């Protein structure tokens, strides 16, 4: 039997009124600054209450909140010693007396992600001002990415997520930047399944238009699409009308269309990174399995569902077989895939661009409108309007640096 004992633990009371010192160090960064400061403070028996450090372009700002020493004259000695140490390191020091820890954060916490190419001081000022105008306070700001767009995240407290999202969406539209607002909390880190649309989301193309080009019926397909946009046809009616125009073309066209499909920039990076993080990833489409099944295999997706073009004797018949994947069908498939994966809906992410995706976007824990029409942007939880699909990672708190570090490592 082991005779080792767990050493006693001293619990420091959480006293909001106890004297504290905020020690701020700033200057040129070099190895050993944090260790040196903490070693200097250790001589006075203080406890660390909070600590934060940031390095920007080789300049460090290190803030350490400590309990104030209680012995007579100890605080003055600590101040003199810290300033002397900082001078020896060619750094500057500032020590501010106070009481307790940081002020309590307001209820209502959100992550506000701002994307710009470029990200201007003017637009940042506008968004920060609007946050303040909703009653929010910016507790922290940090950069998520500098490529292919500049992305920064604001941690905001004191404003409820939905009113904040509404206010910032209006401001973002006025100044021409992308702003996404996601509620803070464990659920943001718990998303484990991502479902996305295919046409104009995962890929840059509309698959029916690629088929129409080979069938020589682009104008006719475009006219049916226009009628659907005017509300004269619902999705299922327009699908059947457009597919009927493909009747008689050779099945070999499928391979040609597969070769013509262009992935959206960042699609591979998004999927690769999500898979590394343990997500299940799939697609649901109002397009065709002849293309989505190929994408599933090429990209290593976990699932794919779409409509199927009927082929008889090597020719397209102009009909689809099976249940049509429409607006309601996409939401139904999201629920089915989540149930099969054992993932609660609140832990799912859906990405899409069209009205056909709205039910799916609203059913997911996080619905992302990707380069979508205004009606879709307004209805979704959040929106991204830059042409890079991997920017969705920033909404999940993944930084570009983490993505590139993972890519540099051979799996």
UniProtKB/TrEMBL annotation:
It comes from Streptomyces violaceusniger (strain Tu 4113). Residues 22-103 form the ACT domain. Pathway: Amino-acid biosynthesis; L-serine biosynthesis; L-serine from 3-phospho-D-glycerate: step 3/3. Belongs to the HAD-like hydrolase superfamily. SerB family. PROSITE patterns: ACT (PS51671). Keywords: Amino-acid biosynthesis, Hydrolase, Magnesium, Metal-binding, Serine biosynthesis. One of its GO terms (biological process) is L-serine biosynthetic process. The active site is at residues 197, 199. GO terms for molecular function: L-phosphoserine phosphatase activity; magnesium ion binding. Its cofactor is Mg(2+). One of its GO terms (cellular component) is cytoplasm. Transmembrane segments: none annotated. It catalyses: O-phospho-D-serine + H2O = D-serine + phosphate; O-phospho-L-serine + H2O = L-serine + phosphate. This is Phosphoserine phosphatase. Its EC number is 3.1.3.3. Gene3D superfamilies: 3.30.70.260, HAD superfamily/HAD-like.
């Amino acid at each position: 039997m082991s005779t080792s004992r767990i050493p006693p633990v001293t619990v420091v009371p959480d006293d909001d009124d106890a004297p504290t010192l905020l020690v701020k160090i700033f200057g040129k960064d070099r190895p050993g600054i944090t260790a040196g400061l903490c070693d200097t403070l250790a001589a006075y028996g203080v406890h660390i209450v909070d600590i934060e450090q940031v390095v920007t372009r080789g300049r460090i700002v290190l803030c350490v909140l400590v309990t104030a020493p209680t012995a007579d004259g100890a605080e003055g000695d600590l101040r003199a010693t810290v300033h002397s140490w900082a001078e020896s390191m060619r750094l500057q020091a500032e020590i501010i007396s106070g009481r307790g820890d940081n002020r309590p954060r307001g209820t209502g916490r959100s992550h506000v992600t701002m994307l710009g190419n470029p990200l201007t001081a003017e637009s940042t000022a506008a968004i920060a001002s609007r946050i303040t105008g909703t009653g929010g306070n910016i507790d922290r700001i940090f950069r998520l990415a500098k490529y292919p767009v500049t992305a920064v995240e604001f941690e905001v407290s004191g404003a409820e997520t939905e009113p904040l999202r509404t206010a910032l969406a209006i401001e973002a539209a006025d100044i021409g930047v992308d702003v996404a607002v996601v509620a803070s909390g464990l659920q943001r880190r718990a998303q484990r399944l991502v479902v996305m649309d295919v046409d104009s989301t995962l890929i840059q193309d509309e698959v029916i238009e690629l088929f129409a080009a080979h069938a020589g019926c682009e104008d006719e397909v475009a006219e049916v699409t226009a009628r659907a946009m005017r509300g004269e046809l619902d999705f299922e009616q327009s699908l059947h009308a457009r597919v009927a125009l493909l009747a008689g073309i050779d099945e070999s066209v499928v391979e040609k269309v597969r070769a013509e499909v262009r992935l959206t920039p960042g699609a591979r990076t998004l999927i690769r990174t999500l898979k590394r993080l343990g997500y299940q990833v799939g697609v649901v489409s109002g397009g065709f399995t002849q293309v989505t099944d190929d994408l599933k295999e090429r990209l290593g997706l976990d699932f794919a569902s779409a409509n199927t073009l009927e082929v008889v004797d090597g020719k397209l018949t102009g009909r689809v077989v099976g249940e049509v994947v429409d607006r309601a069908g996409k939401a139904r498939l999201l629920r089915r895939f989540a149930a099969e994966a054992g993932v609660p809906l609140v832990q799912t992410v859906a990405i899409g661009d069209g009205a056909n995706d709205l039910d799916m976007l609203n059913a997911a824990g996080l619905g992302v409108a990707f380069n979508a029409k205004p009606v879709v942007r307004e209805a979704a939880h959040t929106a991204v309007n830059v042409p890079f699909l991997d920017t969705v990672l920033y909404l999940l708190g993944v930084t570009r640096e983490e993505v590139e570090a993972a890519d540099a490592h051979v799996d």
